[in-house]
Structures are given as C-alpha cells and as structure tokens.
Give the backbone structure.
Amino acid sequence: MSTSLYQISPETKTRINKFRTATSRAEKLEHLVIKIQPKPSYEIVVDDQEDGEDGDDDDDDWGVEVNELKDLPEALPDNLPRFVLLAYPLVTKDGLKKTPLVLLYWKPPTVVSQEWKMVYAGCLEMVRSFTNPNKFLEVNNGLEDEDDVQDLKEQIEA
C-alpha cells in the first residue's frame, strides 16, 4: 500500500489545525480521534462518533469527554484501531506548565481484522507527519488495567 491511497480532506486538516491551536495552552486533557473511512475512499477523517456537529467553535466538538487517561478507552472502539491526538497538560520538573501534543496509535488487542491493521499501519507516517506531534506512542493494550494507564502516563511525561 502506498500513501497515495490515503487522503486527508481539507475539512479534516482544518479540524486538526484548529485542535492544535485551541489546545496549545489547555488546562485539561483534550483529545481528537482520527479514523480512516472504509474502502473505496480510505479518507482520513475526524471521528465524530458522539456529536455529529459541523465543527463550530464549541469545545465539545472534540468528542466524548475524557478528563483523565483512564477515561480514554470510553472514547475509542475496543475492536478497531484509531489515531488519537492528545493535548496533555503537565508541569515539568522545573515547574513550567506545558501542553505537548501527543499522537497515540490505538491498537487494542481485540482488533482481529488484518485488513484494518494494515490500513492504519499504511497511513501512520502520513498522519504522524501532518499532525506533527511532540511525542508519538503506540498503545497495544486496552488501558483496562491501572498499571497500563500509569505506564502510558509515564511514557507521555518522559
């Protein structure tokens, strides 16, 4: 599969850029779920599973509310991969507040479709390049265990 198979629509690019700008100094965890449409389009889009809104300035446009990392699985399917753009506010060891942008490649262990695994792996670099995150992490577990959530938190904050 080549990256020319995948496309990011102008609307999706606008939504991602808006998210980056709106969350650059976020005080709480924010997220944006990105999915790939089924064939024939394989278009990369924002997953509006909860709201179906048209992307106005309301903060709720970013989907299911996630206040902590442990809430993230509620906003994601448990049997399909997704990309998740996180604005993750933290305080550095020096006492500085920052909100790095983190791209998660969500691959729960219950994904059985080899086709979807290949589709997401095939466009990973395109999404990573466009979103330009401060950090990229793969999540291969369902974050059901507190230890898994703590491990992810430590990876983000490292």
Summary: The chain has a mean pLDDT of 86.
